[in-house]
Design brief:
About 25% of the residues are buried. The protein has 21 helices and six strands. By secondary structure, the protein is α+β, with helices and mostly antiparallel strands.
Length: about 650
């Protein structure tokens, strides 16, 4: 039975306090990033505070589900980082409470937040998304004098196309103006050219006033009274200053939401599922229609009836008809007509297939967007749980609180998530990847990471121990460690110099024997290196005796011996025979050629190092032994010269 304990209340209080602050921070960051995409549409439009408030309100509602995972990640990192840094987490574990048991109240809270995220996406989000893009479209249609781009025909003005070559934002002057005025009648068109001009909105904001300088006006004079005459009269006017009034309601009006409501993001989950069935049925019907048309075009050969068409098709498929021979028998005029007809038919087919391909792609894209939105409702909510099981274990492992390290880690994790999510969405949208793979790739990438960190933190495993990774890297690259033997502050018993001298003498003799039997400067057999098990027992024996003597001599008070002890190299006892101690790792390394070549060269380097180390050991022992004999004689006056 689940019972609320003081630890659950304590953990929930710590988490919720940080979560609220982290949520507003993440919400603000996401809103600023999202706002940056539409800043050009908002600047200079003269929008009221009410419109701007609606714009930010709908934007905030849209981005809330995205802010939940990031806020959970950051707050869980800080909470468990603070507990670890203040040793409270250690006290909790010392009481026999595991990390998962301590986090059970937070797990319940995170699942509740995931449910809230799903509710926002399914109920609040669609309405907010529809209202936001309706408002954005309305803002884009306001004040066209700001929206007119350079070097592009602008069709935002009713019954007119406006082209501006260059514009001066400071003075409002437009240069290189070309206006195509359109009406319901083709014959009633007008073309206006001007060197420069200005555009203003009338006081009632229902019309646009264009003041044009140094231009010409071309206008067709055809009217209904002239009938359908082929000769269309027109008039041409040259002017130095002219004013034109165009109909345009530049006041703020909400745009039609018909096109926006059809977007999958503006629908609830139930409506998406319902519409998806209709879309699939419609797409299938279009596909069957295209198939029937393709079959009809295949058998419908011009100038032949259906029976002759089938007969000609069967003969062509059987290979009994030689079209080159038939074509050669035709006259030059017929050859030209046949070639022209074939080219026109081929161009028509290519154009038809291109149009059908684009139409089919749009239909398929609409279906994919609905499928993607279904999966997205669940993955965004599930990401709250994943981010918690990443943030909480990482905070317990790193044990760094505050806003420094947790913020850096949160940003890195969110960037990785965003890259996977955005890449998968783009690839699925253009039909490069399947919908389920594109939308689930971020979840599939981070879920194992969350499980791994949770397992390691719950079992107190060392994951981010820098010294451990340094040691691993040092072993892979074969970096050498140096001895650091200093004088002991307290020495209870002096070294046994006579025994140490015997050990060093035996080591020198064994090194001499080993060097004669093993030629370290020769290249070993690669097969024996990777597929032969066993260590170099002789080197292990030499190293054991040497380390025993060094350990005993490190308690000496003699400065000369202490200095010389640091000259003894640290021997790698097996790296010169095989890369790894485990046989299966050596076999796998040997089978992978590039990796095996690297470790084989690394092993040659260790063989050369061992050859040099053995020489250094004998030379260092030759300098220590005489001094150790003197100290041994002083220690035992009755002992005669051992040499």
């Amino acid at each position: 039975m689940f019972r609320i304990k003081k630890l659950d209340i304590f953990m929930a209080k710590q988490f919720l306090q940080l979560f609220v602050g982290a949520f507003f921070i993440c919400q603000f960051v996401l809103m600023m990033q999202f706002l940056w995409r539409y800043v050009n549409e908002l600047i200079g439009k003269g929008l009221s505070l009410e419109i701007m408030a609606q714009f930010f309100w709908y934007m905030g509602l849209m981005l809330m589900p995205q802010a939940f995972p990031l806020a959970i990640l950051l707050s869980s990192l800080i909470v468990f980082g603070n507990l670890g840094e203040s040793s409270e987490l250690t006290a909790i574990k010392a009481a026999g409470i595991s990390l998962l048991q301590a986090s059970r109240s937070l797990i319940v809270i995170v699942f509740m937040i995931a449910g809230i995220s799903f509710y926002f996406q399914d109920v609040v989000g669609p309405n907010a998304d529809k209202s936001f893009y309706q408002l954005l479209l309305s803002v884009k249609q306001k004040s066209p004098e700001v929206e007119i781009p350079e070097g592009v025909f602008y069709d935002g003005i009713p019954n007119a196309n406006l082209y501006v070559q260059k514009k001066n934002l400071q003075t409002g002057m437009l240069y290189g103006i070309m206006i195509y005025r359109r009406t319901n009648s083709y014959e009633d068109q007008a073309i206006i050219l001007a060197d420069s001009g200005m555009m203003q909105t009338t006081e009632e904001k229902k019309h646009l006033l264009l003041t044009l300088y140094n231009g010409e006006w071309f206008e067709n004079m055809q009217s209904q009274e002239l009938g359908g005459s082929a000769n269309v009269p027109y008039r041409r006017e040259t002017f130095t200053n002219k004013r034109i009034v165009l109909d345009f309601d530049s006041d703020f009006n909400l745009a039609d939401e018909t096109g926006i409501a059809a977007d999958a993001r503006s629908k609830s989950l139930d409506r998406i599922l319902t519409d998806l069935d209709s879309i699939i049925i419609f797409n299938d019907s279009i596909g069957r229609k295209f198939e029937r048309e393709a079959r009809y075009r295949t058998f419908n050969i011009p100038h032949l009836d259906k029976k002759d068409s089938l007969k000609a098709y069967a003969q062509a498929a059987s290979g009994k008809v030689n079209f080159d021979t038939l074509y050669a028998k035709l006259s030059a005029d017929k050859k030209r007509r046949v070639t022209q007809s074939a080219m026109e038919r081929a161009q028509s087919e290519v154009f038809d297939l291109s149009m059908k391909s684009d139409y089919s792609f749009d239909l398929n894209k609409r279906e994919r967007m609905h499928r993607m939105e279904i999966i997205n409702r669940f993955t965004v909510a599930f990401s709250c749980i994943i981010f918690f099981f990443i943030g909480a274990p990482l905070g317990a492992i790193i044990r760094k609180g505050g806003m420094g390290v947790p913020v850096i880690i949160s940003v890195l994790v969110f960037i990785i998530y965003y890259i996977f999510e955005n890449s998968g969405m783009r690839m699925a949208r253009v039909d490069e990847w399947t919908v389920w793979f594109g939308k689930l790739i971020s979840t599939m990438a981070l879920a194992p990471v969350a499980a791994f960190f949770t397992y390691k933190a719950n079992n107190d495993s060392v994951v981010f121990n820098i010294d451990l990774y340094k040691e691993m890297l040092r072993q892979i690259l074969g970096l050498r460690m140096k001895r650091n033997i200093t004088r002991k502050e307290v020495i209870i018993e002096d070294p046994k110099y006579d025994i140490d001298v015997d050990l060093l003498l035996n080591v020198s003799l064994e090194i001499g024997t080993y060097s004669e039997e093993h030629r370290l400067l020769r290249w070993p057999n690669p097969f024996k290196v990777f597929f032969h098990a066993g260590d170099d027992q002789e080197i292990e024996k030499i190293n054991t005796a040497l380390e025993t003597a060094i350990e005993d001599l490190s308690y000496t008070r003699d400065k000369l011996i202490l200095t010389e002890l640091n000259n003894y190299p640290i021997i790698a006892t097996h790296a010169h025979t095989r890369p790894f101690r485990r046989k299966w790792m050596n076999i796998v390394t040997g089978l992978i050629l590039p990796l095996g070549l690297f470790f084989y060269i690394r092993m040659l380097r260790f063989r050369l190092r061992l050859y040099k180390d053995l020489r250094v050991i004998r030379q260092t022992s030759d300098r220590i032994i005489p001094r150790a004999l003197e100290l041994s004689t002083a220690q035992h006056p009755a002992v005669t010269d051992l040499l």
